Amino acid sequence: MNLPNGHVLQNRKYRITHVIGQGGFGITYKGVWYTEVKGALGTVQTEVPICIKEYFFKDYCYRDTASFAVRVHSETGRVLFDKFKEKLIKEAKILSEVHHPHIVNVLEVFEENDTAYIAMEYISGCSLKYMMDREGVLPEAKVLRYVHEIGEALQFVHEKNILHLDIKPSNILIDSSGKARLIDFGVSKRYDIEQQETSTTMLTLSKGFASIEQYDNEGTQSFSPCPDIYSLGATMYNLLTGKIPTESILRATRSLQNPSELNKDISPKTEAAIIKAMQIIPADRFQTVSEMMAALDFPPEEEEQTNSLQETDGQEDNEETTVLSQNDQQLLNENDEDRTILNEEEISPQKHKKRRKGVLISVIIAIFACIGSAVALLVQGNKATINPGTTELINPIEEKEDSTQAIQETKPDVEKDALPSVEKKETEIVKQQPEKLTPTTVVPEKQPETKQVLAEEKKITIQPVQPSVEEINAEYDALIASGKDKMGKADFTNAKKDFTKAKETKLTEEVVRLLISCDEKEAAKLLADKKDQYEVKKTFGNYTIVRKKSTKLYGAIDVNANERIPCKYLNVGIAENGRAFERKDGLFDIYDANGVLVNEGSTYY
């Protein structure tokens, strides 16, 4: 399904050399860019190594062997194919304008062969996944250095209302100088001023690295850095332990093992940051990447870093990002019960209690058998005459106030050398009657010690009564119903209290989702209340020009309704390099599209 080596694109501007990777969304080629470089010697033709990513949605596509065009199997597939292609082109165009030292640079986006292509700079090096496969678990200092660089890249894109949504070791390249570069924004999302996601809402995720909200088709409708923060924490977990974390959607029943249990060399501060970043509920995580970076102790920067593992050229194992359609999401929901099965001990506590009881009885019987054997041997050694009719053995096993109890054993026709049979022995607990002792009664010399040992063996520990499964379920259902009712009344604070109690009663995916939904609705309500203070006028760069209702003065707010340009101006006009905000003294402050004051107190605009 790949384009052949040597294939040219864009009127021979690019030539493909070979495939270096492929996944569910596309095929990545190494190629050559034929361009001109102007210098002191004039214009020189040169070849620049690049990467070319071809959009190829493999579940729905095939390649026409004659024309190399990408075809779609069905009309249903065509809808999905076109939707993702449009998304890819839009995000690539955004990234072509986003330049950061730790983000791969996009050179060009174009359409050809009935699909889309992205031409990117070629980075000589390898991914963190490849590095870990070759070197094993990475040292903490090295991981922290890479995370610091990727954290800077994420802060940069988050400021532009972009989420990456697919952070994992295979999407972080380490170049030949040892610097980390974030790649593959193929499933990223950009959000507009009203916080409505501008791209497709189809679910995309990498198992083990995706936050729980990425499993819900409404989980990433509002901009929040939390999904990327979870994935960055999961990436650290993987690099420092060598283990892919438990899927977030399964952690209700499969707890996440602490990193230090897998790698004792992880520092407590790093472990604490990973655990907080990977909290199931977004509100419990770091709320910004900068907050997460502040919680880590980064090693001092070294003057020069190198990466001894050079380009992999397709030697890496392919690691795909899973695409979940609405049908897949329905299937996940239908299988929720299978995902929350309790372990056997939690389901059938009575069964285990019976087993323990049986073991205790067996131990007691064995003790009695040993005592019987000892008595028989003692009697034989003293050549005592035993009445064949009845043998009374005084064997106190419990104390109750000042009285004692004895076990009377009755067995006809007991032979001198025969041990008593456990199966045929009849036991009866009776009050000790010393006056009934006959001369043939045998009393062990060390009876008090025997009494003490047996008393300890017979001690019974009374366990507190545990609520039944039915009682737990009833309490859980009541709390869930109460929380939902309060959510319907927009009482999110008390709804969260009910859901938190329900989570402590029984941890399920349902209650985790409800807590997340409660946080999101509460945040949405707070944001709506903040926005309601303003009259929206016009979009201005990444901000919105507004008029504050209480003062009737103008300014600009960001997506979170924070005033980026203070609402203190009488009016707003269009300036040559931005917007002119009229002050009360009749002068104008000029702001650019980034909300930066570029000219203060101007007399005109």
UniProtKB/TrEMBL annotation:
<dbReference type="GO" id="GO:0005776">
    <property type="term" value="C:autophagosome"/>
</dbReference>
<keyword id="KW-0067">ATP-binding</keyword>
<dbReference type="Pfam" id="PF00069">
    <property type="entry name" value="Pkinase"/>
</dbReference>
<dbReference type="InterPro" id="IPR045269">
    <property type="entry name" value="Atg1-like"/>
</dbReference>
<keyword id="KW-0418">Kinase</keyword>
<dbReference type="GO" id="GO:0016020">
    <property type="term" value="C:membrane"/>
</dbReference>
<dbReference type="GO" id="GO:0000407">
    <property type="term" value="C:phagophore assembly site"/>
</dbReference>
<keyword id="KW-0723">Serine/threonine-protein kinase</keyword>
<feature type="region of interest" description="Disordered">
    <location>
        <begin position="423"/>
        <end position="450"/>
    </location>
</feature>
<feature type="domain" description="Protein kinase">
    <location>
        <begin position="14"/>
        <end position="299"/>
    </location>
</feature>
<feature type="region of interest" description="Disordered">
    <location>
        <begin position="299"/>
        <end position="353"/>
    </location>
</feature>
<dbReference type="GO" id="GO:0005524">
    <property type="term" value="F:ATP binding"/>
</dbReference>
<dbReference type="InterPro" id="IPR008271">
    <property type="entry name" value="Ser/Thr_kinase_AS"/>
</dbReference>
<feature type="transmembrane region" description="Helical">
    <location>
        <begin position="359"/>
        <end position="379"/>
    </location>
</feature>
<protein>
    <submittedName>
        <fullName>Protein kinase</fullName>
    </submittedName>
</protein>
<dbReference type="InterPro" id="IPR011009">
    <property type="entry name" value="Kinase-like_dom_sf"/>
</dbReference>
<dbReference type="GO" id="GO:0005829">
    <property type="term" value="C:cytosol"/>
</dbReference>
<keyword id="KW-0812">Transmembrane</keyword>
<keyword id="KW-0547">Nucleotide-binding</keyword>
<keyword id="KW-0472">Membrane</keyword>
<keyword id="KW-0808">Transferase</keyword>
<feature type="compositionally biased region" description="Polar residues">
    <location>
        <begin position="321"/>
        <end position="333"/>
    </location>
</feature>
<dbReference type="InterPro" id="IPR000719">
    <property type="entry name" value="Prot_kinase_dom"/>
</dbReference>
<keyword id="KW-1133">Transmembrane helix</keyword>
<dbReference type="GO" id="GO:0004674">
    <property type="term" value="F:protein serine/threonine kinase activity"/>
</dbReference>
